[in-house]
Amino acid sequence: MSKIYTTEYDDELLRGMEEPRPWNITNEIDRFITPTALLIDVGCGTCTKTLDLAKKVKSFWGVEPSTKMRAKVTAKISRQKIANAHVIDGKAEDLPFPDNCCDILTSILAIHSASEFSRVLKPGGVAVMEKLTELDKRKLKAFFGRDEKGLRGQFSEFATGERIKRVRLELETYFKSVRIQEGKWRAYLSTDGLKKLCQETSIVRGFDRNRDAEALSLAIRHLKEEKGICIEHHRILIIAVK
């Protein structure tokens, strides 16, 4: 399940009506910003939450393997005339940067590599990440059952707490300090929003709108409340210092 989101993920239908989040990821990154910093956003997508930070640092680099995503970011940079912002092709496992080159590295709902992140960060540099846990949207994912590979829901193969444990163990191998904060909140989607969520993210492996119509219908029936179809977000905020 390498696809975290697509170019359609910015659609407001996917947000619906949300309860207050336990943190604002942009503000969390901003705590470590300095005017001389080089910031790398790995798996930057369309840079919705990070591009404004480019105006506060010396240099901003977005790393994104999707051509469509990069085109969107390039257009944003051009419209906003941000001279110190750049977006390049690349993957978390093989970052196109030299050792010890950046001060801040971010990764929001994207694939990460603790070894690569540590390699490119300067000593004392900070990685700020937001990641999904196995509890994220668990009730929704349960409606889609199994396939030949097992449970179809993203991270459903993990026992409660296992995802956090694995991430912590990996990061502690390469970083001297790792702080992890759990957060959860509810969101209420329309029927179209829920369908788009399943289509545009990795929440259900191999999701097909026609083949999964019955499961989708059951989910809507059981999760629908007065405010909309209730899904429960469960994420972790990670601050890792090299």
Report on this model:
The structure is a single chain. This protein has 242 residues and is of the alpha/beta class. It is built from seven helices and eleven strands. Helix 3 (114-120) links the parallel strand 5 and strand 6. Strands 1, 2, 3, 4, 5, 6, 9, 10 and 11 form a nine-stranded mixed beta sheet that branches. Strands 7-8 form a two-stranded antiparallel ribbon. The radius of gyration is 18 Å and the shape is globular.
What proportion of the residues is helical, as a percent range? 25-40%
- The end-to-end span amounts to 28 Å
Q: What order do the helices and strands follow?
A: EHEEHEEHEHEEHEHHEE
Structural class of the helices, strands and pairings? alpha/beta
**Average pLDDT number:** 93
Quick summary of this structure?
It is built from 7 helices and 11 strands. With 242 residues, it is α/β, with parallel strands linked by helices.
Layout of helices and strands:
Elements (H helix, E strand, L loop, with lengths): L16 E2 L6 H6 L7 E5 L16 E5 L3 H14 L4 E4 L13 E7 L5 H7 E12 L5 H4 L4 E2 L2 E2 L10 H11 L4 E13 L1 H10 L12 H11 E2 L2 E14 L1
Parallel strand pairs: 2-3, 2-5, 3-4, 5-6
Antiparallel strand pairs: 1-9, 6-11, 7-8, 9-11, 10-11
